[in-house]
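Appendix B, example 12.
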Amino acid sequence: MVTVKSRKALLVLEDGTAFEGRTFAGEGEVEGEVVFNTSMTGYQEILTDPSYCGQIVVMTYPLVGNYGINPEDMESANIQVAGFAVREYEPAPSNWRSRMTLAEFLDREGIVGIEGVDTRALTRRLRLAGAMKGVISTEDLDPLSLAAKAGASQGLVGRDLVKGVSCREAYQWPTAESRHHVVVLDFGVKFNILRCLAGRGCRVTIVPAWTSADAVMAMNPDGVLLSNGPGDPEPITYAVDTIRRLIGRVPLFGICLGQQLLGIALGGKTYKLKFGHRGANHPVKNLLTGKVEITTQNHGFCVDADSIKDPEVEVTHVNLNDGTLEGMRHWGLPAFSVQYHPEASAGPHDAAYLFDDFVAMMEKGSADGGR
């Protein structure tokens, strides 16, 4: 029988709403923006996705931990979430790939995991009021005290979280082929994006988010990928400047935060969604083909399509739940982006064509003699 240590814990939102639970991993006190994810599986990928930096993640699916943790499904080298809340934790995983329990994984990195939370009520509260700052604590069990701490915490708006998750030095991703050289601006890139590029014969160089356009071009890339990443795009001015200087010089492909930064570089603005899009079941319509893709998403900010005045920038994808911008393309210059995650397996492969489009764009650039 697997034993799980347990202490009483509270998760309290900044509006004072309190949810009682108990720990299944870690202890102490953490703060972050409280968000919910509607995926039925994929908790390991969620935990290690750098886009979740600064957030306490609540899973809407009630049973979590049942297939354990394995080394192949990591999306970064470490856990990235501030805290983790579930309805029911399963301490005895059953899966041939499992190498440790979810509790062991969280404990190893000192992350607080709590169960017994009324996740349906918590999700409903966040849907009605919007994503809020919150605190999980096993030390201070006074709801009023924790609500005050949550309200005084930093939150995500106006905060640069990219510098905390980007690589510090450039490195290469292993690949068996080398048809095209892709430089990835690392705003918090997921490993599977790199795997998808390498699987298409790309030599991949990952560079820090603050790398200049001149330094990028000195690497002689066939294309540049603008990666996903956490938080508010507006403070990431250094990346916007780099992207603005790269537009038209080399093919660009933006994913998630990469789309938001590209949108700002093209003259647009971004705004914060009420409770964001996080899950593996978001329907997106491709306006170019009329097809609907089932997508994985993780973002709390969005590009305002009406704010981009360049007539050659066209919306290519929209979210069928709320009509928000999910993809765009510049028809005069080699640049396109999507707000969702084409490397994930929601469809399971509905959006994989986007990497093929990027490769085709690089091949066209090579045929045209480069830019």
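The radius of gyration is 21 Å. The chain has two domains: 8-152, 162-367.
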